[in-house]
Structures are given as structure tokens and as C-alpha cells.
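Re: [help] complex structure
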Amino acid sequence: MSTAPVLEVRDLCVSYGKVEALHHVSLKVETGQIVTVIGPNGAGKTTLLSAIMGVLPRSQGEIAYLGHAQREIEVERMVAQGMTLVPESRALFGEMTVEDNLLLGAFMRHRLGHRDERATMAQVFEIFPRLRERHTQMAGTLSGGERQMLAVGRALMARPRLLLLDEPSLGLAPLIVREIFRIVADLKKSGVAVLLVEQNARAALQIADYGYVLETGEVAISGPSDQLQDDPKVIESYLGLGGKH
Amino acid sequence: MDFQIALLLGQDGITNGAIYALLALALVLVFAVTRVIFIPQGEYVAFGALTLAALQAGKLPGTLWLLLGMGIAVAAIDLALAVRRGTARRIPAIVGWNIVYPAALTALLWLVKPAELPLPAQVLLALAVVVPLGPMVYRLAYQPLAEASVLVLLIVSVAVHLTLVGLGLLFFGAEGSRTPAFSEGNLEIAGLTISGQTIWVVIASLALIVTLYQLFERTLYGKALRATAINRVGARLMGISTTMAGKLSFLLAAAIGAFSGILIAPITTIYYDTGFLIGLKGFVGAIIGGLASYPVAAAGAVLVGLLESFSSFYASAFKEVIVFTLIIPVLLWRSLTTRHVEEVE
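Output below.
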């Protein structure tokens, strides 16, 4: 029995005016998979996530989510269907408490009639005990690592089927990066599919099942992540000496 | 000036200040959520007062026709969009709010003879007519331009203001109206007579401010509005649509405006264009709060009320001049003390 992939992108093109940022990109995320997109700055990684989420319009291509082709992609509609994006900027509500930030993560679920935000919050606190300690604190006063935890925790409040993560390691100390990645790897066990965009290729490939290398708006290489970790071109450009360790 | 006069002026100032405070809060709310400088805020004050007066005079208020007309316009646009986008499940809500509700309200006003109803029922009916005009104006005038710059939105506001004032003249004529006081009694404290309506205004304003505070602090939708004001991108990613937040803030602004008009209608005669000046004074209060801080805006608005009433005693010909001149030192102080932050999107 085969089930439809959580996300299937075919021939996606996105342009900013005349400049084409994504050129016929295709990728697939299967149920319970972590898929990573690595590549240099400006390769179009963030654009890819924005187009999937509906923040940016696509100029061409098909996006199927949970087996359904999406005719018109609107952010609110994607959120309602269980897709959540954690943007690179984290986009927290700085002058609100950690708890309120989390509650708002469940806004759409609440609107759709689910009343389980307290139970979900308890689960998020299990994953990020630090957030429980800080629950009355303003989000703007958190440290960088805590902010990222809050951004991911807030996204989990929506009980997503697919989590889009944009550079979760950006600006964080190595120890905290390791913790965040461990948590992302754990999410897989709860059945959440993850599409992870990263510059930290080594860390991303270690937890991912499948990887795509995006260069100047096109998929240059793709394959299972242990294969990519051994690929000479990937090692040379993104992993540096030593490769997999 | 003796003590007695000072107390009287103070009472006047606080009464007007309470109204300006309500309007200042509405202006801050609308700006924070939608970046719209809501010049037509005052029109809702006039519409609220004049709609109530019309109901009491046994007439169907012109605002009712506006509600019917705008409802049809909104429904036509939204239905066309729903068909084009294949979102048929939205059709019942669109028809319900924009066609069925105004039609049902018209039928109700026709049948019940509002003039014979008790005052609280009349107030509710007046609000039922005027408040939905808030989200409808947002839908028609601002939503298509939601991503435009603050300046463009300001220009739209001027246009909406002029349109609504014109419609006000058409609906209610050039004569002003005054409605009977909520209660006829007066209160005597230490030799000073305080009119019942003054007490009504102050208490109702305070109650409304507390309600708003609770709404923003305790309810999920209130928090969603604050979230949109803090980080629009983040709010959208939570599924809080910019459109929903915009409509909700305009609904609250219209409710606050209409309610303010109903509160002051027994104190001052309201004309079709009175709202503008009242709204502008609320705006001065909102500017004192930097269009961002609710408590400072409210306090600033009370200050505007006091300044107005005392300057009407000393130099009544210049009272508006004095009030609006206040904005210059405030702006100077603001621009000198606050760090300029570029708008980030």
C-alpha cells in the first residue's frame, strides 16, 4: 500500500520581477521523513519555503500537499491544513509572554474548533523544559537559543503534519544547535514530517533521511543523506575536509 | 477664576477627555494593527449619535440604507472572489453577514417602532446599525490596499472621511440633533453640581476601557490583534489573517466611535460633521501616545480635554488653536527622544 507523500513539489518556478529565484525545482517529503535542503546563501532556499507556504506567489509548477494539488496557496489555508513555517527571523511576538506566544501558535486550531491548546502546551513544555521555566517572561527578553526553542515550540502548538524550518541553527552556539537538531530528529518519532533548510550542511545531513543541494535556484544534487555525505562534490563544497564523522 | 469655576471646567474637561480617550484608543488600535491613520473615526461618532436621534424621532436612519448598500457591495465582491477561487464554503457567511443581517435589521426597525422602546434598546439598535459599517468600510476601502504604504492608506482615509461626511449630510441634513440624557438626576458633591450624564460618560468610558483591556489580555482574538500589531509576518504564519485582524480592529473602532457619539449626544448638539473635530482631538491624544502606547494615549486625551475646557474659559476664541498647537511641542519632544526605526517588513 502506498500513501501519497506529505509534500510533492514539481517544476516550481518563482520570480522576483524579472529575476527568477527558483528554476524548475522538484522535491518530495514522505510521511515521517526529515528532508533537508542545503546550499549556499542566495541559492533560493528561503524562497522555496516561502512559495510552499504561500507567502510568495509561484510563477509556475505544482505543489501537492497531503496528496491534494493546491490550486491557490494561501498562508492561512496551509496553516489550517497542518503546515507550519518557522521563518529565519523567528517572527516571535516580542512584547508578549512566552505562554501567549505559544497560545497563538494554536490560533488556527482554536478557530477550527479544537480546544486542546493546554494539553499541547504541556507537551511542548516536555520537549522544551526551558520554556516552562520562562513561561511568564516576555519573548523579547529570551536568549537566542531560547527564542529558537520558542519559535519551534510555537509551531508545534499547531500540531503540524509538516514543519518547515528555515535555518534553525542561524546565530546559535554549537551546543544549542546540537540540542535543537536532536529535538528536530525526535519530532520524526511523533510522525511530523520536516523540511529543513540549512546552511549547516553537516548537522542537517546527519539527522535527515533525504537531501537536496540547491544552487542558484536549481537542484544540483539530491539523494539519501548518507549518500550525499559521501558525495565528493558535497564534501568539497559543503562539508569541508573530514566529510562524515 | 475661583475654585468653583475651576471645578466646573475640570468636570467639563474630564467628560470630554474621557470621550477623546476612547477615540484615542481606537485610533491607536487601528494604526497598530492595520497601519491606517483612521481619520473617519469621528464619522462613527456622528453616525452613532444621529442614528440614535433618528430612531428616537421615529424615523428610519439613513445609515441603515448605507448598511444595506455597502452590504450588497461587499457581498458582490466577496461572492465573485469565492466563485473564482472555488471556496464555496464561505458563501453562507458572506450572504449571512452582508445581505441577511442588514435586511433582517431593516425589517426589525420597520416592525418594532424604535421611538417607543426604552432607551437601552434604542442604543443597542443604533449600535447594530452603525457598528457593522466598520468592517464593511475596511473591506471596501482598505483591504485591497492592505500592503500599501502608510501614506497611501492615509490618502484613502481622507477620501473615506470626505465620503462619509457627505453621506452624513445626505442622511441627516444640516441640522444638528441632541438626545435626552440617560438619567435626569444631578449629583451634588461639596457644593458642586455634577450632571447625571457626566457621570454616565465617565463611568461608561472607564468600563469600556477596562473591557478593552480584558479583551486584549485575556481572549485569544484580542491576543491575535496584539500579535498582528507586533509582528505581522509572525501572525500570518499562525493563521491570523491580516484581513481578519483588520476587520476586527475596524469593528472595535466603529463600536467605540458609535458608543462615544451616543454618550455625548445628550451633552452637545451633534451635526453631520461634528465627528471630525472630536476625532481630531482624540488623534492629538493618540499622537501623544506615539500611536503606540494605549495608556499614554488615554492620558494624553484627558489632557486634551482639560486643556480645551480651561482655554475655553481664558480665550474661548482660540480654544481649538490652543488644543491643536499642543501637537507641535509633542511632536518635537517625540522626535527628539525616540530613536527613529525604519519600517521593517
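The beta strands of chain B are 186-189, 192-195.
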